[in-house]
Structures are given as C-alpha cells and as structure tokens.
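Long-time lurker, first post. I've been practising inverse folding by hand and with some scripts of my own, and I keep getting stuck on stretches where the structure tokens seem ambiguous. Below is the full token string for one chain I'm working on. Before anyone asks, I'm not after the true native sequence, just a reasonable design that respects the backbone. If someone could post their per-position residues I'd love to compare against what I wrote down in my notebook.
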C-alpha cells in the first residue's frame, strides 16, 4: 500500500518530511480545504504533489506563470510522475493530446493558469475526473497581496461544481489580512491554516545604506569576484537600472543579462531559460523576474534599491538557497528610494496602506537589532534569540549616549529653519566649505562646524538612527527636508536621552562574508567537476535544467559519502527510485573511477574533510561517527573553519546569552583567550567547548 512517507522516499528521494509537510498532506487526504503559508524554498510543492499521487483522479494545479508550470512538470517527469501543463505556449495538436490523456485519467497532475482553468471549465475540463485542486501563488487572488492578479478571483465561480473536491491555497508570503482575503476570494470551506516557520537560517542578511553609486559598483564587483561560478540576481526598481547594471558587469567580463517587462516575450523567455540552464549566471532584473523560477542553486540576491514592502522583499531573497545550502543577501538603499516608492502609489486607493508598508521596510533597513527576528515578527513569528547570520548579529552595534550629538543635529535643523536635507545638514555640522552651505549662509549659523571631528559617513550613520528613533522625520513630499518631532524637541531641551550605535567597519565585515561564500565550493575537486559535467550533459540531452537531474545538495552528498554500490544511492538525498534506475550505475562508475585514481599529493586536510561532511548536512555527531573522531575534535575543526571564513553556523552550539556572559567576563579579565580562567570565573556554569565556540564567534583565535 502506498503511503505519503513511501512516496516521499521512492519518488522524491527523501527520508523525512520537513516541518508541517506531513500534517498538511494528511489534512488534504481527509478531503478538507487548507491555506498553506510556507516560505519560498520551504517545500510547498510536496504538500500537494504527494496527495495528488495518492488520490485516484487528476489533481489540477492553478499556477500563474508558464515557466513555473514547465519547471515543476519537468521535475515531476524526471521522478517518473505523469504530469502535464496546458497553456498558450503549446500547439493545438499538443493540447488535444493532453486533453485526451486527462479525460482518460492518465495525467496525475495538470498545471494550468487561472485564465485557462476558467476557459477550460466551460469546455473540456468538466469531462475530467478531478480529485484535488491546488492554487499556487495564492496571494495573487488578494487585493491586499503584493502581486494582485484579478483572474484568480474567478476561481470561486466554479467552486460549486467541485464542491466535494478539497482545495489547497499555497503562498510564500501573506500577512493576516491577506490570508483571510485568500480564503474568502477562493470560496474555501472553513479552511485550516498551516503557517510554517518563516525562518530561512541558511540565508545571510546584510544591509548597506546610503552608498554612492561608484562605491556600490566597487562593492558589488568585489562581491562577485569571490563568487565566479555562483548564480545570483540583482533586483532594481527601474528598467533603466537593470540595463545599466548588466552593461556595467558585461564590461567587467561577467555574463550578465537584464530582464524587465519592456522586453519582448521571446527575449524574456530566452534570458530566463539561459539562467535556469546555467548558461548565464547573473540576472539584473525588476521584480517581474523570479516568481516562476524554481532554480535551487541561486546563491545570492542583491537589492539595488529598497523594496516596496517586506512581503516582496522576503519572497525575493527567498529565491536564494532553495536547496538549503548557505546563500547570501545584500540590500542597498537610500532615502530617494522611499520618494520613488511613494510616488508609485501617490494616487492609489490604498495609498496609506502602501506607504505604511514602505515605512516598515525603511525601519527594517535602518534597524540595529537582529534582522531575521524583525522579518519573523512581521509574519507573526516571535523569536528573541540572535540569528548569528545577519550583519547586526555578526557585528553587534556598540551603543553610547548620543544625546549631545542629537542636540547638535537638531539645533542645526532648527537654525536652518527646517529647510535642509540630510547631506546639507552634515555639511553644516562638519563646517564644510560647500556650495549648499554658502549659498544659504549656513556658515554664519552657531551650529556651523560643531561636529567637525566626525566624518561625513559617521554623521550619516548617526542621523539615520536619529530618524529611526523618531527625533526627526523626512518630509518626502518636500524635497526630503528634515523636520524636528516632539520627541526631538524633548531631546534638544535635555528632557530625554537617547542611545545610538557606533559606526561598524562594514568593509571588513563584508570581506569576511565574501571569503565565506568563496569557500563553499572547491573547484579543484575532480569528483565534483566530473559529477557536474555528467549532470550538465544529461540535462542537455533531456532538455531540462541541470538541477532537475539532481541538485547541489545531492551533489555534495555524493562527493562526501562516495557510495560504492547502487544500493547505497538510496541513502542519498534527492535520488528517488526512478532516478537511481535511470542513471545510478553511471554515478557509481564516475565515483569509482575517481577512487581508483592515484592519491593526489594535495590530499584534503582533516578539517577540509570535516567541511565536506558539514556542507553535506551532517550533524557534529554524524561527522564524528563517519570520521571515527570525537565530537569535541569535530567541533574544534568547525571553529577553525569558521575562523578561516568558511560558512559554518556556530550559533547552534552556544546561545546569545552565553556569548554575552563570556564577552563580559573576558572583558573584565583583560581580554584573555584562555579557557580555564573564564570557566572558573563563570563558576563552571558554561562548558569548556561552549567557551571555545563563543571566543571564536567573538573573533579572537584561541592561542
């Protein structure tokens, strides 16, 4: 008898369900409606694909994009599943064949657009026995959603015909209002809400504010130079910027393409196909690009501008690291982005709602606390533990009393009659001999030059925090002029005090992150290269993306475990029964041919061997067992690898509270790196291995 767990293993090659997947599948099999909110890369597709294989008749999957349908159908067919899509890209002959197969019950999953679903219902779809209906990207049905699609609203019209058929609505990002609206617009019957954790801890989060264009170009180039073989997306607000970025990167030797709604359908399809098939590594795009991309090995996302809301931002960064491997995200922003975003909705019916969402995005960008926790709380998931994988956690800001600095700035604004923007205020405070200062006679004000000892960039850092704390606000409709608030007046008069952070050396921080990313892959590893070549060749023959054959997680496991026999391939994640039958023998042959070659003089070090197993997803205990070493030794390897800027998450071994305790004790003891004195000073309450991990996190090598 087929069970969800058995199908998961035999068809998809996984031993265990991800959180909530099993419960969602069981609920669907009971014949009831559900709303599933699960982040991009969280495994939404499995939630409806496995019930589809267990139900007796066809499952209809309503999906907004042709590329998304095609991608999922190719992946299902590679796993031996009878799936098809029906859309405008096909010939009438192909459509007729699919219709006949559906009516005969030969198709288990049929992917259609909402328009096709409504049109086909009036024609041939009524003849198809249907067991289950899944609505993917369901936020498109909602007027509150971030990508409104009116055609989804017509799905409710045919619900009566499928009254006994369970519906499942799935989306990656939806707040409470959107979730409620989805259920109402689709006419769902008392749906159960399944809200998965939004925590994508494999994604690093970093924000860079108010970076001049030339400096940004230098930073992005440095970022890419450390990732020569990694795929990524640069998101821009305007079409012009996508073209400028692609031209700039092409001039530096990168195969970058641009993508926006102004291109012809053929050009957009060509760019997207090139990216999916690894023929192009970098896409510079507006948000028109990405919804239909199921590419699991996107390793980085850069936002050139501030996104219009947190929902869109989270979905866009969620396109990185869908295979669960470490991936990076960087957001650049400035206040002119805010003006542009507000202009987009100037005359809209939901103007105040959209502007509030922009403001929440600004608050996220300017935050000095854990960024991941801010995102999680936005979606109703509370967490008070440091993530250890965002810029604010990696380099926690050091706070000090900023009241005097605030009084300088606030006084400068008032003396300039609230007619200065951010840059002019900084020039005024620093005593700059600039045109904007002298044209307005600001050099004659008492506040001229009072903050000369602080650099321009430092003042930017301080003022952004003051704006975020509510001492002053930006008049976005008055050329970005600064206005002092009631709270700002209280600080100016000495009635209130504020704490702000010292500037962090971002360049050093990002350089470390770049080295991390560069360490993910070892291009000299012959087995890795052989397996990639085999995957690429097989993908070309079958006209599918390489990750449809097997993804990077599977690749890493093959390299780490080096199975000797075809039966051992059953223990490799992502290799189901059909794939093992199709090319399992070839995999074993490739691995065996590498094993039989003479040992290279550059044999991997013991720490590098640990790294391979760690990147394959093994725990410390499993690595220790595999290598016949103690867990303490393996933990020592991971600390050393962390110091060498490899992508190691040490925060899973020690809490933020414990790190802070060790930091304070160490500070009192003259910044010692010796374990025993710290252990004794803490009365033995924290283990030696945790102290060692904490010292590594704090950035000091243990001597």
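-- Answer (accepted) --
I ran through it position by position. Result:
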């Amino acid at each position: 008898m087929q069970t969800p767990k058995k199908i998961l293993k035999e068809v998809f090659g996984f031993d265990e369900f991800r959180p909530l997947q099993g419960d969602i599948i069981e609920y669907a099999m009971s014949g009831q409606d559900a709303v599933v909110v699960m982040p991009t890369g969280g495994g939404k597709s499995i939630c409806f694909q496995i019930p589809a294989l267990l139900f007796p008749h066809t499952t209809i999957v309503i999906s907004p994009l042709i590329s998304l349908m095609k991608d999922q159908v190719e992946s299902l067919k590679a796993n031996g599943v009878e799936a098809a899509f029906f859309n405008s890209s096909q010939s009438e002959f192909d459509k007729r064949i699919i219709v006949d197969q559906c009516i005969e019950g030969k198709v288990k999953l049929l992917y259609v657009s909402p328009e096709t679903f409504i049109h086909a219902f009036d024609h041939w779809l009524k003849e198809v026995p249907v067991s289950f209906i899944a609505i993917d990207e369901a936020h498109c049905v909602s007027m509150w959603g971030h990508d409104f699609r009116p055609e989804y609203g017509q799905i409710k019209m045919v619900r009566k015909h499928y009254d006994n058929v369970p519906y499942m609505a799935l989306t990656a990002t939806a707040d409470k209002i959107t979730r409620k609206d989805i259920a109402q617009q689709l006419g769902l019957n008392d749906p159960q809400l399944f809200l998965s954790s939004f925590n994508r801890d494999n994604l690093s989060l970093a924000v860079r504010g108010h970076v001049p264009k030339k400096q940004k170009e230098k930073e992005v180039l440095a970022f890419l130079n450390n990732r020569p073989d990694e795929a990524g997306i640069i998101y821009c607000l305007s079409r012009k910027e996508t073209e400028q970025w692609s031209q700039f990167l092409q001039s530096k030797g990168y195969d970058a393409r641009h993508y926006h709604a102004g291109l012809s359908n053929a050009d957009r399809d060509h760019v997207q196909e090139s990216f999916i098939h690894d023929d192009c590594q970098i896409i510079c795009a507006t948000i028109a690009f990405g919804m239909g991309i199921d590419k699991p090995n996107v390793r980085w996302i850069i936002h050139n501008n501030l996104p219009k809301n947190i929902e869109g931002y989270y979905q866009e960064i969620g396109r990185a690291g869908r295979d669960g491997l470490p991936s990076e995200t960087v957001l650049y922003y400035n206040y002119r982005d805010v003006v542009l975003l507000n202009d987009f909705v100037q005359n809209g019916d939901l103007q105040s709602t959209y502007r509030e969402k922009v403001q929440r995005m600004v608050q996220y960008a300017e935050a000095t606390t854990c960024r991941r926790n801010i995102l999680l709380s936005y979606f109703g998931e509370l967490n008070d533990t440091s993530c250890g994988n965002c810029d604010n956690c990696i380099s926690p800001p050091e706070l000090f009393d900023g009241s005097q600095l605030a009084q300088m700035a606030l006084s400068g604004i008032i003396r300039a009659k609230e007619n200065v923007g951010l840059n002019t205020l900084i020039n005024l405070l620093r005593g700059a001999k600039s045109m904007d200062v002298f044209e307005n006679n600001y050099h004659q004000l008492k506040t001229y030059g009072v903050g000369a000892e602080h650099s321009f960039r430092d003042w930017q850092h301080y003022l952004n925090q003051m704006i975020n704390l509510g001492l002053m606000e930006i008049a976005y409709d008055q050329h970005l002029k600064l206005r002092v608030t009631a709270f700002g007046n209280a600080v100016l008069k000495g009635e209130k005090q504020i704490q702000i952070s010292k500037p962090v050396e971002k360049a050093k921080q990002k350089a470390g992150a770049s080295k991390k990313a560069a360490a993910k892959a070892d291009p000299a590893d012959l087995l890795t290269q052989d397996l990639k070549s085999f995957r690429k060749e097989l993908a070309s023959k079958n006209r599918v993306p390489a990750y449809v054959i097997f993804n990077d997680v599977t690749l890493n496991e093959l390299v780490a475990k080096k199975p000797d026999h075809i039966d051992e391939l059953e223990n490799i994640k992502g290799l189901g029964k059909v794939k093992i039958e199709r090319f399992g023998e070839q995999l074993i042959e490739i691995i065996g041919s590498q094993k039989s070659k003479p040992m290279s003089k550059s044999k991997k070090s013991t720490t590098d061997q640990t790294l391979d197993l760690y990147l394959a997803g093994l725990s410390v205990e499993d690595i220790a067992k595999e290598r016949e070493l103690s867990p303490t030794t393996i933990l020592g390897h991971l600390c050393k690898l962390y110091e060498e800027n490899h992508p190691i998450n040490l925060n899973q071994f020690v809490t933020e509270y414990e790190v802070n305790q060790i930091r304070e004790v160490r500070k009192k003891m003259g910044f010692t790196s010796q374990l025993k004195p710290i252990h004794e000073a803490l009365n033995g309450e924290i283990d030696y291995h945790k102290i060692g991990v904490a010292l590594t996190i704090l950035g000091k090598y243990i001597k």
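A couple of notes from the structure itself: Residues 577-595 form the longest helix (19 residues). The CA atoms of residues 268 and 284 lie 12 Å apart. Happy to go over any region you disagree with.
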